[in-house]
Design brief:
Order of helices and strands: HHEEEHEEEEEEEEEHEEHEHEEEEHEEE
Distance between the termini: 79 Å
Number of strands: 22
CATH architecture of the largest domain: Beta Barrel
Strand content: 35-45%
Structural class: alpha+beta
CATH superfamily of the largest domain: Trypsin-like serine proteases
Number of domains: 3
Helix content: 10-25%
Shape: elongated
Length: 392
């Protein structure tokens, strides 16, 4: 039975063993070459020889093998993008991002915010070679851009684009990119949510975005988010951060967002042609979601749908006769009496995200859409002729 003193001696012995290891790992200890302290005799105890340990072969699991194979296939097509700006006649590196090879013609897909406003671009491949690149097209509304790489290395297989319809919350995903300039970094996670609406680089929003807990950090922007088949399902764009109250610095909260591959497929052909992608425009403001408290204040029959809080003067919605709320409620800034859009072209919409997703993925300026609207207790239908989205 150990007495308290013996237990303390054991603890001190363990601590004494640990501290030199820690210190050595930090480089704090150096070998002693001389000392004025008298050397005490040391009793040497010869231990019984221990047979050599057996070599154990680590067999990777099937999931490990999948990730190893995926990385080997995909990483050569993932690139590091360095952007430069002219300062006093000299090109100075301003930042880094990621991207991936889209085709054999040297087109690389990335985020618009990676390249926007810069003067020169350098693309580095996994083999270490760097090549100059130019911007072919960029779209601030979806935060997408296309680069043209000069003399792209041969034998690089472009990545395959996946599809949003096959995705599900909980599905495993992989992000590959260059966080903090650490090229070729792979992180793994799951799809945390689908159908998120995130801010664009304009006053508008990007719908149908993918939320993931796969680690995404500065430098990952523009890199691919992939399923375990190695198909690109999104373009990594942003992380959700909070500020530390003690130092005021942003900290990652483990939530990242990627632009939906379906939006990429919609916008990319136009950008590759060097043209501007024109989005359809209705001209309404809406609640993102309707809470029960808001439903009661507005006198609505349901919490689903697109409640119109404002209509832009002269917009397609204004011309079609869509009504915005104009009767004050107990909630500051929220007016009752607005239309509740429940469907577009017969397709039910439960949220503003679904509404703008339908427009972006299915319609173009000049098309007509039919809105199903609840106006009080009455259901009506209004035909709206879409126009080109304004810059503001």
């Amino acid at each position: 039975m150990n007495t308290p003193i013996k237990r303390n001696m054991i603890k001190l012995t363990l601590v004494g063993l640990f501290l030199p290891i820690l210190a050595l790992s930090c480089g704090l200890l150096t070998p002693a070459t001389s000392s004025n302290v008298p050397v005490q005799p040391v009793q040497v105890v010869v231990a019984t020889p221990v047979p050599p340990a057996k070599t154990i072969s680590v067999i990777p699991s099937s999931e490990d093998a999948t990730l190893v194979d995926l990385y080997a296939r995909v990483n050569p097509a993932v690139v590091n993008i360095t952007v430069f700006q002219a300062q006093n006649g000299v090109m100075v590196a301003q930042g880094q991002g990621s991207g991936f090879v889209y085709d054999t013609n040297g087109h690389v897909v990335t985020n618009a915010h990676v390249v926007h406003g810069s003067d020169q671009f350098e693309v580095t491949f996994s083999d270490g070679t760097s090549h100059n690149a130019t911007v072919v097209g960029q779209d601030l509304n979806s935060d997408l851009a296309v680069l043209q790489v000069e003399n792209m290395p041969p034998a690089i297989e472009p990545l395959t684009l996946g599809d949003m319809e096959s995705l599900a919350v909980g599905q495993s995903v992989v992000a590959i990119g260059n966080p903090f300039g650490l090229d070729g970094s792979l992180t793994r996670g799951i799809i945390s949510a689908l159908g998120r609406t995130i801010p664009a680089l304009t006053p508008f929003s990007i719908p149908q975005s993918i939320q993931t807990d796969a680690a995404i950090n500065p430098g990952n922007s523009g890199g691919p988010l992939l399923n375990l088949n190695g198909e690109v399902i999104g373009i990594n764009r942003a992380i959700f951060t909070t500020s530390s109250t003690s130092v005021g610095e942003p900290t990652s909260s483990g939530i990242g967002f990627a632009v939906s591959i379906n939006i990429v497929k919609r916008v990319l052909p136009t950008l590759m042609a060097g043209k501007t992608y024109d989005y359809p425009y209705v001209g309404i403001f809406s609640l993102n979601d309707i809470s029960i408290i808001q439903q009661e204040a507005l006198g609505l029959k349901q919490t689903t749908g697109v409640y119109v809080t404002d209509v832009v003067t002269g917009s397609p919605a204004d011309k079609a006769g869509v009504h915005a709320g104009d009767k004050p409620t107990d909630i500051t800034g929220l007016n009752a009496g607005g239309d509740l859009i429940t469907a577009i072209d017969g397709t039910p919409v439960d949220s503003f995200n679904e509404f703008i997703s339908y427009l972006i993925l299915n319609k173009a300026p000049g098309d007509k859409v039919t809105l199903t609207i609840l106006r009080g207790a009455e259901e009506i239908k209004l035909e709206v002729t879409l126009e080109k989205r304004p810059s503001q």
